[in-house]
Specification:
heterodimer; A: alpha/beta; 7 helices; B: 431 residues; alpha+beta; 19% strand; elongated
Chain lengths: 214, 431
Amino acid sequence: MLGKEDIHILKGINLDIEQGEMVALLGPSGSGKSTFLNVLGGLVPPTSGEIKIRDYLISEMTENELCLFRREHLGFIFQSYNLISTMTAMENVALALTFAGVKKEIRRERAKEALEVVGLVDRMGHKPSELSGGQQQRVSIARALVNHPEIILADEPTGNLDSKTSADIMEMITRLNREENQTFVIVTHDPDTTKYCTKVIHMQDGLIERSVNQ
Amino acid sequence: MNKQELLRLSWENLWRMKFRTILTIIGVVIGTSSIIVMVSIGNGAQKSITDELSGVGSVTTLQVYQDLSSMGMSAVSGGKQKDKVILNDDAIKDMKKIDGVVAVTPVVSLNGGEIELNRDQYGVSLMGIDYGVLKDMRYETTSGKKPGANDDNSVILGKEALTSFTLTGISAQPEASTINMEDLIGQNVNLIVKRTNAAGEEEIRSQKLKVAGILESTGGNEDYSIIADYQLVTELNEWQTGVKSNVKKNGYAEALATVEDSSVVNSVTSEIEAMKFTVFSMQQILDSMGSVFQMLQILLGGIGGVALLVACIGIVNTMTMSIYERTKEIGIMKVIGASISDIRNMFITESTMIGLIGGIVGIIISIALSLLINLIAGFFIGGEGSVTISYITPGLVIFALVFSALVGMLSGVRPAIKAANLSSLDAIRSE
């Protein structure tokens, strides 16, 4: 998919995820779990097949429609945080609202709310380089939350964090999932992470090996 | 994303790379100011020459000739050569009837006259015109007054009539005039005209002339002549050549028609040309010079344009570099909801800002340079008042501003499209 030759990374996945679920995609590296997440988020178009979120057919959308869709319905959390280094925590969180055309005062207010949720209001004037890894990941979670999306896609959210911070982050995600009824799809290779989830999908070689509800 | 946010975000992005942005802007500044200064020099040359030529009188005065080729002026001929039309008193009367014509006078000239003042001899030429219509002509005196219709022996001195070099009787050295012409007003001067008679002897005729005034500069031949009544000049001419003039048959060599204002110059010109005379006016020279100066401006502007082209490449370079540096950031923005047009507009806005800032600074610098050029030129050329070498018109300023912004915008289009089309996933993965 990324090279010149088509390499089929995902080979036949049939999966339904319900609103409010917290799903872990677990598997060894190369199993296609990250690719699956990117396809879900419309970052990579599938060569065949359908992806439907609510009534939206993601697999048929144009690049621009996908941008607008992500703005309204999806939040992303990355392993490497992906914050803009020249902006403060507050600005990073508010940026998503900027593109949505939200007014400045409202933007600030909502960004502050989101930072409150992740417990970082006191650090909102700091740039990413002045924050610890855990704090940076919390800023990125706040950014994912600020639009109040129905679905949050997280790619190894705790991959760069120590176990103590990882646990904090996962607890926060669990809390959001419960309180806001937001759907989470979390890619991980860490079995510890999966214990916070309601459903664990084991992937292997581009296929779902098994799906476990817990 | 709304416009205000777009501007703010682009502005912040621009100043993140201060040094590089400033260097790029300097490129635009050099480009813009070289265009402005170059064109302003073209403008200045045009302005100073047109100002010089279009003195109040000269634009509204038409020179009428009956046969251009015999005047040795075929090179500047604007009209066609006609046969068998005579520029006599009847023709002058007809010209007076044309709409917009205020006065028509024949012109009779006499060359080779001399005036002796303070032991210096000045070679002078006389220009005889009809004193009956002098009051209606655009000849103004800077001091003294115009002679009336009957002041046959009064003359007006052209501004430069006595300042031309002349050979003194004793030494053979040319000398500049030391005469203050103002002092001559109201005085009589002696005009000496010489001829050689049939026996080969030199005869001298002396004619007393009363100086009535000094002529305001017209930029034409009048400045170097003494204006006198045409009947007097005709009489002197007849004496000098020994031939009785026959105006009825041969006509005058030249006539001057004064028109109401510059708007009727062209219509009067064509009517006189319809009478089969050749007309020569400052307007024609100005018209043809206009196109010469336009060429000059295009040429000079083109030289400046090359500098702006280089600046334009600089903007493309800066914006492209900026994309490589900000690839990850572009990816993040696309993932969190920036649309393709948001990204594209952001980059185009940045490059337009570079162009616009460069343009504004360029204009300021050009105005300063223009003042400096005129100051230095004034210092070297000297003379009274300010010298106009470089002249910046408001139109030029507006053009430069719009053009530099446009150049910035266009330079940003390709990089912007490139940025907008980056794959968000590839972009976000890049380091």
